[in-house]
Structure formats: C-alpha cells, structure tokens
Specification:
Elements: E1 14-23, E2 26-36, E3 41-45, H1 52-59, E4 67-72, E5 75-77, H2 82-87, E6 90-93, H3 105-109, H4 124-137, H5 153-165, E7 171-175, H6 183-198, E8 202-206, H7 210-216, E9 219-224, E10 227-233, H8 239-247, E11 265-273, E12 281-286, E13 290-294, H9 301-308, E14 316-321, E15 324-326, H10 331-336, E16 339-342, H11 346-350, H12 357-362, H13 366-369, E17 370-371, E18 374-375, H14 377-390, H15 407-419, E19 425-429, H16 437-452, E20 456-460, H17 464-470, E21 473-478, E22 481-487, H18 493-501
Length: 507
C-alpha cells in the first residue's frame, strides 16, 4: 500500500493522484502522489533515478501518465502537450536554460506566446513593454532589446525566469535553479521565491542541496525508486530523517572510513606551464593515494588536468610515470601510459549519450573485445557487466541509451569506461557534481575501493566536505598556481578557503 500525502490546511492548486509512468523495460513512476499548495514551496527530494525528472515532465505536459490523475483545483485535467500545461498556469525553470542567443531578451521571454495587434501581427512595442515589466518585477536590470548572446550566464538565467513568469503562472517548478548561480545571485533567487509565495503561487523546488531545501522550503515530498515515500512540513523533519527516507537506510557517515596504504610514486609533474592557464605546477602522486585539488572557479585546476590528459598542450614541463619520462600529446597517449580522465561535463565530454551503456563502457577497450577486426558481442557485454556491477549501476539493461540514465548513473558509466582500461592514475573532475546524496556515497565508496586496490586517484572538487572527507593530501590552487599543499592533519575548512581566496597571504 502506498503512503498517502498528509493533508494541508488549504486546497492544493495542482496534484498528482496515483500517477504511473512506464518506459520500455522500466517503471519510472509507480502510483505516486504529490500536492502543491498556494503560497508554499514544496521541495521534491530523491536520489538520481527516483523519478523527479519524470514528474516534472508530466506536470509540464511533455510526458502523459499511463495511469492515475492530474488534478488542477481538485478537477481532473489532461495535458496533451506543454502548451496545455502552460494554459493551466504551470511553468518550469530548468537547470539548463533553453534560450536562443540570436534573439533579443524580449523575444526569448515571449517566444511562442508573443502579444499580437488586432491584425494578428507581432506587437513588438507591447512585447518589449511587458518584458520590461517582468524584468523589473524580478529586479533584473536587463534591457529587453539586448541580444541574448551579449549577456552573462547569470543574466541569461534571469531571462529564463522571466520567460517562465511571462505566462502568468500559478505553479512555478524550479529544477536545480541555483546550479549556475553565484552566492549573490542565489540570495536574489531566494528573494524572488519569497515574492512568488506572497503572490500565492505554488512552487515545486528540486535541489540536491539540503541547506537550500531547509532555507527555502515549507513542505517536502520524498520519492524513492519511482515511488512516493512521504511528505510533510519541513519544520517537522531533520536532515538525517530526509536522507533515510531518500535512500531507505540511515546514512550516518557520508564519507567512507579508510586507512590509506600509500605505495610508490606513480606520477610526478615537474614545471608544468601553460601560456594562459597555469604556471609552475609541481606535484607527486603515489599508489593508493587520493590527492585532492581545491580552488575557486577559475583557479586552473581543470586546465592542469586537461593538460595531463593531452587535451591541451603545456608550453613546458615534464611528466614521469613509474619513474619514466612520458610525452603526452593526446588523450590516446595518456590512456596508453595509464592516465584516464573523468570530465566535469559527463553528458557532453564523458559519454556518447545516444549509444547504449555497454558500447560506452567498452569503447576505449576495443582491442580487448575484438578479434581480427571483428567485435565479439559476448566479450563486450561481459566487460561492461563486470565494471557496471562494481559501481552498482541502476539501469533496466546494458542496452539502455546512456542519455536515458540519471546524472548519477551517467557518471558511473563514465567511470566504468575508464576503469575497464586498467589505468594507473584516474583523474576525477568534480565527480559528484549534480548528483544526489545516495549516488555521492556510492561514488565515494568506490573511490576509496580504487585507492585500496592501489590505483592513484586525483580528485578535483569545489565541495569542501568532499575534499576533507576523501583526500589524503590537498593541493590548493589560485590564479593558475599552486599556493598550498596540505597533509591530512593540516586540512581544515578555514585553511582551504583562506588559501584559495588569498586571505592573509604574505607570499
């Protein structure tokens, strides 16, 4: 029997009642319920793969449910498409904004529903005036006639918010809205949410960040494995209880307890310089060690890793692997010498999302899965099965396209792909960015396991708890240079932040 949503004092604007959604080979949602109330923020919480994205697509008319009902003001409705959902006042602000660089701000805001004059022609003056009104309402100092391409990422995000509000929404869905925003912009978003609440709008807020959830949400709803597992007022629940609901188990310790067994030096980087990105990079890495790289955005951490992997070419410097100098001119050279790289942008750089899981995993190892120029399907599947099983990958089958997986499972595919090459050094660039707490724990456990097996791990991370919890040593970078190397005993949040920001430095 499914748990029933707890009743709130007022009637819901929008509800899902026992909604089911099936895809080939997998049930994404199983009789889920969800209620959104006027003037309240409901946080939708769940691991990657819990069904959150499917719910958003059903609420916005992109998907239609296979069972159950969608209710608006208590009456059943059918959203045949996105326009039908918008007509009922439902709009969404997505993590990745879908806008058009060549159009003006006003054209982007009103694309598809621009005001027209009595002759049915586009009323440009009215469109610009209405766009200015919405932008003023959200305190976005942007000229509606500006081309979108001339705006910063943060300003583009504000345009996306303005677009969402242009349909006179009653329900606003915010899917990871703070992912691309700075600290100041996040605070401005919080203020906007308060304004929307005051206007009586119902808000569905999806985030992996618990500090945001407890700051902004009035209510919570938790999904697990496509099922509704509980909801209520946020003031009545603790972070620990939410995590337990999410993962079905208590998570007392996010980071695995490990006693590193550090072996011989496997990698030594000497005098690495790049004309524009970094200078004087020197460090060593040993077997069984997790070496953290910390710094603010733009510090040059990813750029160093990309040079080590052969994506970019340093102007000078040398790399020694197992004591021998190696020249790395391309990613193929890096892989051949035992260095692999899991990029931050897994969707665009880490995987071919249109291909199935097994082909992604075996792609760099075709010499192992082929004979006389012909691929051996059974060998491919065996290799893919071995490494995806080690990472506890959740998918209907190995033939599932990677693009259909959740962010956390996509990350596991990319890691599995490189582990199958049996590397000496694995570079993980923001390995848990954009994935939920349960998947984070799985990635952390596996990192610890890799190090225990003697693999040398470099982890680039902007999350201080992750750096402190996983690293045996930390290198701090600022403005393209290494400014500190800290042992386990020297690591502290304040130390990392001060060194990364250059606070109190006399160097």
């Amino acid at each position: 029997m499914q748990p029933q949503p707890k009743a709130a004092a007022q009637s819901a604007i929008l509800s899902l009642d026992a909604v089911t959604k099936d895809f080939p080979g997998v049930r994404a949602l199983s009789e889920v319920s969800l209620s959104l109330y006027p003037g309240k923020v409901t946080a939708l919480i769940g691991e990657n793969g819990a069904g959150k994205s499917t719910v958003v697509k059903i609420l916005t008319g992109i998907y239609q449910p296979d069972g159950g009902k969608i209710l608006v003001d208590g009456k059943p409705v059918h959203f045949a498409n996105a326009q039908a959902a918008a007509a009922h006042g439902i709009t969404a602000i997505h993590q990745e904004t879908v806008l058009f660089d060549e159009l003006s701000v006003a054209e982007n805001i009103f694309l598809g529903h621009a005001p027209r004059n009595r002759f049915g022609l586009l009323d440009t003056a009215a469109m610009v005036a209405k766009a200015r009104e919405i932008l003023t309402e959200i305190e976005a100092p942007i000229d509606p006639s500006t081309r979108l391409r001339d705006l910063s990422i943060a300003s583009k995000h504000l345009v996306a918010i303005a677009r969402a509000l242009s349909i006179d929404a009653r329900v606003v869905i915010m899917d990871e809205p703070t992912a691309a925003l700075s600290h100041k912009e996040i605070n401005e978003l919080y203020e906007l949410v308060e304004k929307l609440k005051a206007q009586g709008k119902a808000i569905l807020f999806i985030s992996h960040k618990f500090d945001e959830i407890f700051r902004i949400a009035d209510r919570y709803a938790v999904f697990r494995d496509g099922q509704f597992v509980g909801d209520g007022d946020i003031q009545d629940v603790t972070q620990g209880e939410l995590v337990q609901l999410m993962v079905g188990r208590a998570v007392d310790q996010i980071f695995p307890k490990r006693k590193p067994t550090v072996g011989a030096e496997v990698l030594k980087v000497v005098g690495y310089d790049h004309p524009t990105e970094f200078a004087d990079i020197n460090f060593t890495l040993r077997r069984g060690e997790i070496l953290g790289f910390y710094g603010l955005i733009g510090a040059g951490r990813s750029e160093v890793m990309q040079a080590l992997y052969g994506i970019t070419k340093p102007s000078k410097g040398a790399v020694r692997i197992d004591g021998e100098v190696r020249v790395i001119r391309s990613p193929a050279d890096a892989v051949a010498h035992g260095i692999v790289y899991v990029p931050e942008d897994r969707g665009k750089q880490g995987a071919i999302t249109a291909l199935p899981i097994y082909q992604n995993v075996t792609l760099p190892s075709l010499h192992r899965t082929s004979r006389n120029g012909f691929l051996r399907l059974a060998t491919e599947f065996a290799l893919a099965r071995e490494y995806t099983a080690r990472l506890d990958l959740r998918a209907a089958s190995l033939e599932t396209a990677v693009g259909n997986l959740s962010g956390g499972n996509q990350q596991k595919v990319v890691i599995a792909k490189w582990l199958a090459t049996q590397p000496k050094v694995i570079i993980l660039d923001e390995p848990t960015k954009g994935i939920d707490i349960g998947s984070k724990a799985a990635v952390h456990d596996f990192m610890a396991e890799l190090a225990a097996q003697g693999l040398a791990v470099i982890m680039v991370s902007s999350e201080i708890p992750e750096v402190l919890g996983m690293s045996d040593r930390v290198i701090v970078m600022r403005q393209g240079r290494i400014v500190a190397e800290l042992s386990k005993d020297e690591m502290a949040p304040e130390t990392l932040v001060r060194r990364a920001a250059g606070i109190g430095d006399t160097e």
